[in-house]
Design goal:
Shape: elongated
Radius of gyration: 34 Å
Number of helices: 8
Pfam family, one: K_trans
Number of strands: 2
Protein name: Kup system potassium uptake protein
Family: Belongs to the HAK/KUP transporter (TC 2.A.72) family.
Oligomer: single chain
Organism: Actinacidiphila bryophytorum
Helix content: over 70%
Order of helices and strands: HHHEEHHHHH
Largest sheet: 2 strands, antiparallel
GO molecular function: potassium ion transmembrane transporter activity
Length: about 260
């Protein structure tokens, strides 16, 4: 028998060499795929193209851009109109100070313009644009805003159903167990994204809640104090009391300048 590697061992060595070569080829292919993906991603980032637009044929991308722009304008107008309506109703309910409201229609009551809210929205939008730089960075904030709104709406619905409509507790409990379980799961999932921008809607909501409750509580204190002063006998009121001064001024006006 010829000296050297036995035939069986030679086959095993050849198999190992082929396996090593196959692994090297696969590694090189994976590296090429990664490089290709990186180049594709870089090219798309440079071109600033959305993934959804890449799914549309080239000759249909312009209509999609027009449609997306129109949808953005409509959504923005809805936000502005909703902010006007909410601010107006909050002022009527005593949760905000009196606002200058301009009625822009002679036939439609709800068609209004609130200058202070308009300027506030403009300042907020500019701040978000310069702070977050892109709509992608606002994705987590948007998710928290949506899930928070859904949860609050669900809670308010069950409160109204019980306090105003008198719905049985067992029926409300069954509905709340289903809806709130889903809502709170979404909220919990978004809570993990607080440091990535989900804190923004929480901060806005907390600020609005603090302002409205503070104003409402202040109005209650002032109204109660005014009612207490008006309930006192006129002779017991001090001369510096606002109610006393108002009553005296009204009496002088009724008497006239020649009395």
């Amino acid at each position: 028998m010829q000296a050297g590697v036995p035939p069986a061992d030679g086959v095993q060595v050849l198999q190992r060499q082929l396996a090593d070569a196959d692994r090297e080829a696969r590694r090189a292919t994976d590296q090429e795929d990664l490089i290709g993906d990186a180049l594709l991603d870089r090219r798309h980032r440079i071109a600033d193209l959305e993934v959804r637009l890449l799914l549309v044929p080239h000759h249909r991308r312009l209509p999609m851009v027009v449609l997306a722009t129109a949808a953005t304008v409509i959504a923005s107008q809805a936000v502005i109109t909703g902010a006007y309506s909410v601010a107006s109703q909050a002022a009527q309910l005593g949760y905000l100070p009196r606002l200058r409201i301009a009625h822009t229609s002679g036939s439609t009551i709800g068609q209004i313009y609130v200058p202070w809210i308009n300027w506030l929205l403009m300042a907020s939008v500019l701040t978000l644009v310069f702070a977050f730089r892109s709509s992608t960075a606002l994705a987590f904030a948007f998710g928290m805003a949506v899930t928070g709104t859904i949860t609050i709406t669900t809670l308010l619905f069950f409160y109204i159903a019980r306090a105003k409509w008198g719905t049985p507790v067992w029926l409300l409990s069954a509905g709340a167990a289903v809806l709130l379980t889903v809502d709170l799961l979404f909220v919990a999932a978004n809570m993990t994204k607080l440091i990535h921008g989900a804190w923004l809607p929480l901060l806005i909501g907390l600020t609005a809640f603090t302002v409205m409750t503070t104003w409402q509580r202040g109005r209650e204190i002032v109204t109660a104090d005014r009612a207490r002063r008006e309930a006192q006998p006129r002779a017991a009121r001090p001369c510096g009391d606002p109610v006393h001064r108002d009553a005296a001024g009204a009496a002088r006006r009724r008497a006239g300048p020649h009395s």
